[in-house]
Amino acid sequence: MEGLAESFLESTFLGLWLFGWDKLPKRLHLTAIWAVSLGSALSAAFILAANSWMQHPVGYQMVNGKPQLNDIWALFTNPVFVWGYAKVLFASLVTGAVVMLAVSAWQLRHRGDREVFTRSARLALVVLVPAILFTMLVGDELGVIEARYQPMKIAAAEAQWTTCQPCSFSLFQIGGGNNDHTPTQIIEIPHLLSLLATNHWNGQVVGMTPLQQQYTSQFGSGYYVPNVFIQYWAMRVMAYLGVPVLLISVWGLWLLRRKKLATSRVFLHVAVWGAVLPFLMNTAGWFLTESGRQPWIVQGIMLTKNGISPTVSTTTLWISLVAFAALYGTLATVDLLLMLRYSRDQLPPPRTEADVDAPVPAVQY
Ligand code: HEM
């Protein structure tokens, strides 16, 4: 479904948008890029529906020991999907707005096409404030949903080995991981974890040790605790970096109101470097989601170790892993260099009356 629907939608309309400059009527040309973004949102929906099924399997029956989908509607009403999809859409709005703000800030710092880039900075900031607030709110609700369906994931993200009620939120700690359950240093806020994980002041969070015992009796002997260090710090990198993004956006709106944004060198400098933050937050978010599902490939149904194909040798695995890493690494580097180069380009001079019938200069690649 994802391939058929969104790939055709995205690639067809991206082609129309790229090569339709001064050929398509303006409105139709604009519709083309909207169709591309609709395609990406659809693709995210299909990917998240499949991923959320692995986190919390629904709408299936076991046939000859294999899960068989028997209710596609359950797939798209899976609470992990509904909140996870909302989360990813808001997180992508945050990413787009922060990058747009960074490009505008760089241009304002270097060539000062003030009218155009103040307008783009304003658009980025107006989207960024609600987008980051909703990402955090939806993130909190996703935490409550996952505490219900993947309690081990959330207990690991909080390095919570024993069951607690009420529960303090660990703001920072040293140790307390898989090999030493007791942290040497910890700064904590009373009741906050109960609120974040259960929406209740005195809510209970089941610890990893009792969950390990429960899963052993339910699924047989095995170690069911994910990597606590990754879970703990992935949650904190993702959530804590949301705070400077929120502060930068409020600061920007305040400067805009006072018509000082284009001249505030400190803000423009900070806004340029802020472009790094969403990439760190999103990557940390996916570490939290995927590492937190281990040792399961499908929660409660199939362990990752049983997903290894018996016919593929370790050497072949390594070769394909290195090949993919090299390919995606090269593509990411080229992509970054192209984005840096074109985001620093000067805008073409504004069109004069004489240019009205002249063809619109297409994006020069
Ligand atoms: C207070 C702030 C936040 C909280 C409480 C929070 C909570 C969570 C939780 C619980 C998950 C795991 C979901 C799962 O395993 O299904 C998650 C995943 C994720 N988070 Fe956050 N988050 C916060 C802020 C952010 C921010 C600011 C961003 C990026 C702009 C972000 C991006 C992501 C991404 C990309 C994922 C993986 C996708 C997914 O599982 O839905 N989060 N977050």
Work out the helix count: 13
Q: What string, H for helix and E for strand, traces the elements in order?
A: HHEEHHHHEEHHHHHHEEH
Query: Kindly, what is the distance between the CA atoms of the first and last residues, rounded to a whole number of angstroms?
Result: 32 Å
The helix fraction, in percent, is 55-70%
Which value, in Å, is the CA radius of gyration? 24 Å
How do the strands of the widest beta sheet line up side by side? 1-2
**Low-confidence region ranges:** none
Give the names of the bound compounds: protoporphyrin IX containing FE
Strand-pairing-aware structural class = mainly alpha
Strand content: 5-15%
What best-fitting shape do the alpha-carbon axes yield? globular
What is the residue-averaged pLDDT?
93
- What's the main sheet like? 2 strands, antiparallel
Compute the number of strand runs. 6
Description of the molecule:
- The model has no long low-confidence stretch (mean pLDDT 93).
- The protein has 13 helices and six strands.
- A two-stranded antiparallel sheet has the order 1-2. The protein has a two-stranded antiparallel ribbon with strand order 3-4. The protein has a two-stranded antiparallel ribbon with strand order 5-6.
- It is mainly alpha-helical and 365 residues long.
- Helix 6 packs across helix 9.
- Helices cover 63% and strands 7% of the residues.
- The radius of gyration is 24 Å and the shape is globular.
- Protoporphyrin IX containing FE (HEM) binds next to helix 4, helix 5, helix 9 and helix 12.
